[in-house]
Each structure stands twice: as C-alpha cells, then as structure tokens.
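Renewal narrative, Specific Aim 1. Our central claim is that a sequence can be written position by position from structural information alone. The example that follows is taken directly from our test logs and has not been curated for this report. It begins with the structure tokens describing the chain, in the order in which they were read.
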C-alpha cells in the first residue's frame, strides 16, 4: 500500500508546492547563523515576502530578498512556483525518470558523456581491474547520492587495494567513471576538481530555451565542486558564457578570487561556450523526446575540444542560476506564454 501511494503521489508535482511559513525562532536562528544585520531584516518583512512569492526561509536569505523591492522580489523563481510549472509541463517525479537514476542516465545519455564508465554490479573483478588500470584515476559514484555526497576520486596503486574497493562498491551498486580531462583554462581555477557549469534549459516541443547558467569550482582537495562541500559558484550570462558576478560560497560569502589558485572569477569567459550550448541543447531535445523532462539543470564539464555532460538534474536547485543575478521567473513565464502553456 505504501509503495502504491508513493508512486501515485510521486507523479504529482503539486505535492511539492506546499511551503511552510518559518517560525520566529527559525527566522532568528537563520539570521544569527548568517550574521545578517538586524537593521536590514525583520520577520514582518519575511511574512510579506512569503505572501508575494511563497519563498522558503532559505530562499528569502539566499537571494537577499530583504534588500529588494516588491517588484524585484517577484522576479525570483521559488521552489513553490517551480513545482507549479513542472505540473503544467507534466514532468514526473525525479525518482521515476531517467534523470533520477545515475545508472540509467549514463546508459541512455552515453553519447553526451564524453567518458568511459562501468557499473560495478554488472562487471567482474577482472573487468573492474582492467578499467582502473587503463585510466589510473577514476571517480566512484554511489547511485542514490546527491549534493556531492557519495563521490570519491580513486588512484590505482595495486590490485589488492582496488579489489577491496570492488567488493564495497558492488554492495553499493556504484558506478566507476573515467576522470574527464578538462580545458586548461577551467582547470587553472582548481586542478584537483572537475570544475563544471550548471546550465538550465527549458525544452518545449523541441524548442530549447537557456534559462540560466553558473560556474562551479571546488575548493582545496575536494573531488567535487558542489557548494555544500565547500565549492564556489558564480553567476553567468547564458548567452555569452561570461562570468558576471564574484564568487559565492554555501553561506553566500563573496569570493573575488579562488581561495587556492587566486584566479579571478568575474569577467572570465568560459572557453568552448558555443560547444557547451550546442551540447545541452541536443541533450534537452533528446530528454524531452524520451519523456524524461522539460526543465533540466545540466552539469557540464568543459573539455579541451568541446563539452561533456556529467548529469541532468530534474529537481534542480534554483540558487545556482539566480543567486547574485536577476530572478528567472519572468524568463520562464515568457517562454511558457510563447509556447502556449500559459
């Protein structure tokens, strides 16, 4: 019975549209943890903003809506309105789509990946060793992980160490992927991480619209660039591929230069941007044609001669494409009107 209920409601995006008003206690706790000046913020203003756009408390803080006018606040796409849009588009829950399954995604979207991979559950010890010895450095991915969790870089040293990993990874149904070689200008920010782009697309009837973009880079020796794991993000112009903001971390501190390399973020132009756009546009059309979704956040690596998709995110977070930038609500509304959805 529980499974039947889960699968029924999983297909109904409206269940995600309920946004709870935060208590005064939670509001004050968030304000203190983020060290926000009380002169710039009040619980009363938060309630007012909630009524305007149904924002969560995190969205209110992340987008610094307490510093914005009502007109500016209305430009931001909140999670509540995102799921309303997903309902209009008929997109299903991530867990029931190919973009919600790492194994299935790699298999189905193989032509967009630009790297070799194997599923540990479906390979022998010999095949596993052969793969790791061939590539020397690989990435282990747990299939149900998110926000940069369950991802590990592994360097081959000897057979015994690798085989011990094999047994553990097989139990976890993990993926093993070749480490992508990234463009030297992108690697300059942090060579220890595959620094990626988040490019958000909305595809309707084969027409692909670029909604927003963000550059992400790791900090230190982390193997991922996720902000939750200490990474840094920067807002981008989706048309030109130019970084248009300073960097920001998970706590929304401003980061002008990369903490490790010293590279400056703002005004940096992403190399091979045209190839990046063409890659996500083709992937977005393929995604829609196969019933996998319309509104997708693509994580993309810039390679020396093009671009490679890391994964597609159905339930994409909106902070990456809106923080320190203008909101995307008006852009999406315009697209939906143009395509006859609204």
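The sequence written for that structure reads:
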């Amino acid at each position: 019975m529980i499974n039947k209920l889960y699968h029924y409601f999983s297909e109904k995006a409206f269940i995600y549209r309920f946004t709870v008003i935060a208590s005064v206690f939670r509001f004050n706790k968030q304000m203190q943890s983020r060290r926000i000046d009380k002169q710039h913020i009040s619980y009363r203003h938060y309630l007012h903003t909630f009524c305007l756009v149904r924002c969560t408390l995190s969205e209110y803080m992340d987008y610094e809506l307490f510093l914005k006018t009502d007109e500016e606040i209305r430009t931001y796409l909140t999670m509540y309105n995102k799921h309303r849009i997903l309902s209009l588009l008929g997109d299903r829950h991530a867990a029931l789509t190919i973009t919600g399954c790492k194994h299935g995604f790699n298999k189905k979207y193989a032509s967009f990946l630009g790297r070799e991979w194997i599923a540990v559950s479906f390979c022998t010890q010999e095949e596993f060793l052969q793969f790791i010895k061939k590539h020397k450095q690989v990435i282990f991915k747990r299939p149900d992980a998110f926000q940069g969790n369950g991802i590990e870089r592994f360097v081959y040293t000897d057979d015994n160490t690798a085989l011990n990993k094999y047994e553990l990874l097989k139990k976890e149904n993990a993926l093993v992927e070749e480490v992508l070689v990234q463009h030297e200008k992108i690697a300059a920010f942090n060579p220890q991480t595959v620094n990626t782009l988040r490019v958000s697309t909305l595809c309707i009837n084969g027409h692909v619209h670029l909604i927003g973009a963000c550059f992400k880079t790791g900090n230190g020796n982390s193997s991922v660039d996720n902000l939750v794991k200490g990474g840094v993000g920067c807002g981008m112009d989706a048309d030109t591929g130019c970084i248009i903001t300073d960097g920001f971390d998970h706590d929304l501190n401003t980061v002008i230069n990369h903490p490790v390399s010293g590279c400056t973020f703002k005004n940096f132009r992403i190399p091979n941007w045209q190839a990046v756009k063409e890659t996500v546009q083709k992937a977005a059309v393929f995604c829609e044609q196969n019933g996998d979704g319309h509104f997708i956040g693509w994580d993309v690596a810039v390679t020396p001669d093009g671009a490679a998709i890391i994964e597609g995110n159905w339930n994409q977070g909106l902070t990456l494409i809106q923080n320190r930038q203008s909101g995307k609500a008006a852009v999406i509304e315009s697209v939906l009107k143009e395509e006859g959805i609204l």
